[in-house]
Amino acid sequence: MTALSLTYILLAVILGSAAQLLLKAGTNATPVGWALALEPRIIGGTACYAVSLVVWILALAKTPVSVAYPMVSLGFALNAVLAWWLLGESLAAMKLAGIGFIIVGVVLVARS
Length: 112
Known about the structure:
By secondary structure, this protein is mostly helical. The protein has helices at about 5-30, 40-60, 65-70, 75-85, 95-110.
């Protein structure tokens, strides 16, 4: 895997995580309904998803999908840590163990 393809993959994962966190923050700030569509964090999260899609397509153009797609799971680890830090969500020992397994799995797939 080249540095460029790894950069695309990681950027797509980071943008996807940012989208999730923005969407969650937006739903925390506004009751579910039509007003939610105009909430700035919801709009920002949607924009992050759109840019993430373009970056992901660039990543797939340069990387086998069997290598690239497992790396998307890094978003689970990133989201869990950032949700704990930014949103005050719990990060129990079982979650940390799961995050560890995810990271080990991604490393194994990337090196294969």
